[in-house]
From TrEMBL:
<dbReference type="InterPro" id="IPR040764">
    <property type="entry name" value="CvfB_WH"/>
</dbReference>
<dbReference type="Pfam" id="PF17783">
    <property type="entry name" value="WHD_CvfB"/>
</dbReference>
<dbReference type="Pfam" id="PF13509">
    <property type="entry name" value="S1_2"/>
</dbReference>
<dbReference type="InterPro" id="IPR012340">
    <property type="entry name" value="NA-bd_OB-fold"/>
</dbReference>
<dbReference type="InterPro" id="IPR036388">
    <property type="entry name" value="WH-like_DNA-bd_sf"/>
</dbReference>
<dbReference type="InterPro" id="IPR014464">
    <property type="entry name" value="CvfB_fam"/>
</dbReference>
<feature type="domain" description="Conserved virulence factor B-like winged helix">
    <location>
        <begin position="220"/>
        <end position="274"/>
    </location>
</feature>
<dbReference type="InterPro" id="IPR039566">
    <property type="entry name" value="CvfB_S1_st"/>
</dbReference>
<comment type="similarity">
    <text>Belongs to the CvfB family.</text>
</comment>
<feature type="domain" description="Conserved virulence factor B first S1">
    <location>
        <begin position="4"/>
        <end position="63"/>
    </location>
</feature>
<protein>
    <recommendedName>
        <fullName>S1 motif domain-containing protein</fullName>
    </recommendedName>
</protein>
Amino acid sequence: MIKIGEYNTLTILRETDPGLYLGDDEENVVLLPHKYKPEHFEIDDEIEVFVYLDNEERPIATTLEPFLQLNTFGYLYCSDVTKYGAFMDWGLEKQLFVPFKEQARPMKAGSWYIVYLYIDELTQRLVGSSKTNRFVQNDNLTVSAFEEVNILVTHLTEKGANVIVNGVHKGLIYIEDIFEDIRTGDRTKAYVKKIRDDNKIDIVLQTPGYRSIEPNANFILEELQAAGGFLPFHDKTDPETIKNELGMSKKSFKKAIGTLYRDKQIILKEDGIEMVVAE
C-alpha cells in the first residue's frame, strides 16, 4: 500500500513522458514527475519518495523533503490567506491547506505557526491544523522521569516554554529552568524532570538532578581552561550572572563546583574558583 503523507520505498516500473511510474508489492502505482527523477537509475531500482496529493487530489511522488509528515507537527510559514483558508509552505510544490475551522486563531500571511498534518476523514485530503491540543494527550504517558526526549517548542508564556514531547504529549519548561535562548519552533533534545500527579510533564534542557552534576562539572572545567584557570564566580555570585555567563542555575553551579572541590580539581577562593594545576 502506498501511504499518503509519508515516505515510501517503491520500485521504478517504467519511464514515460510525464515521468517515472513507481509501484509497490500490491501493484499500486504512483507517478514521479521528470523534474524529481534521479540522474542515474535503472528499471526495477528501488527509490525512496514522499507521496502526497497534487492539485487535483491525485497521489503524486516527489524527492523533495517536506517539513513534516503525516500525524506529526511542524513550524510552518503562512504564505497566503484566502476566503477558503490559509496556505502553508511545507517544502513541497503544492502548499498545505489549513481550513478556518482548524485555526486556533485567525492566521495571517507572513506569520509562522505550529501545524499538525492529518488526513481529513470526510474528504480524504491532507490538511493542516494549528489546534495542536487536539493531537496530544497526557492520559497515557509513554515517558518517565529522567528520560531523554525530543521536544518542539510551541509557545512561550510567563510560566515558561510550552512544548510537545516526542510528538504525543504536552510538557512545560518552567521559566526558572530556562538558561538559554529558546524560541517557538525550536526542536531539541531535553529531559523529563518530573511527572506530576495529574500527569503534567515538567521538562528541562539539562540532565535533571544528580545526573547533571558530572556534565556541569566538566563544562566548568572547560570554561576554567578557556579562561586561563580562573573564573570570578562563587557561592555568593548573583544567580542571574551565573545564568547569563554559564547557562545554568545557581543550584546547578554550586553542585558542580562542590563535585570539583571534593575531587580536588578546583580551589575555592573569596573572589572565584581556581583550577588546580597537576604537577
